[in-house]
Amino acid sequence: MVSRLIDGxxxxxxxxxxxxxxxxxxxxxxxxxxxALDALAADSLVVRRQGRxxxxxxxxxxxxxxxxxxxxxxxxxxxxxDSILNSLAKTKSAAAARxxxxxxxxxxxxxxxRTRFLEGRPVIAETITLPVTRFAGLDRVEMVPNNVYxxxxxxFGLTVGHAVERVKAVAASAADAEQLGCPEGxxxxxxxxxAYGLDEAPIEWRVSRCLTDSFHYLIDLK
Length: 222
Fold this sequence. Notes:
Blueprint: H1 2-6, H2 19-26, H3 30-42, E1 46-49, E2 53-56, H4 61-68, E3 71-73, E4 82-92, H5 95-101, E5 108-118, E6 121-131, H6 148-156, E7 160-171, H7 174-180, E8 187-197, E9 202-210, E10 215-217
Antiparallel strand pairs: 1-2, 3-10, 4-5, 5-6, 6-9, 7-8, 8-9
Helix pairs in contact: 2-3
């Protein structure tokens, strides 16, 4: 069933056929279909609505941001960040980008640099690298939204299924210090993320340098 999300046969917001109909189409039991839909619902890829049916999940800003955005205020409150896009450029891929995104030599990538704000304060300097082949025409998007994962899904048909992050402490560079309004050398939390599509191919490399004097990185281990 995931293949139907990948190839666009099932679009965001679309109501799915009944479990019985899907089972007939795929030649499997209705119980197998139910288990598969339960798994998709657990991954927030479909939404079950009582009395109405099962729908392909739409990329709602709050749901997606809180799924992937883990900075939390020290008092425990969670807020959605705001973002300003500083630059968007097409460039030849560096070796690091090719390794992260599994790109062939001489590939081109988009590089987005932006600043993210919490409570009106710049707290994240962020660089996003995307393969041009999967995001053709990104430079023609009228406005890159705060929730870029929603843009990936609605404009390019790419749903982020999961992401892998590596976290370490770094010192603010001169560029980071200017962007975040902090002294050079200030401790920052660096989050290096690779986001994968539903086909398990890497579609985004994101590096976020975060001020954490009033925030922490929260992981809920369940």
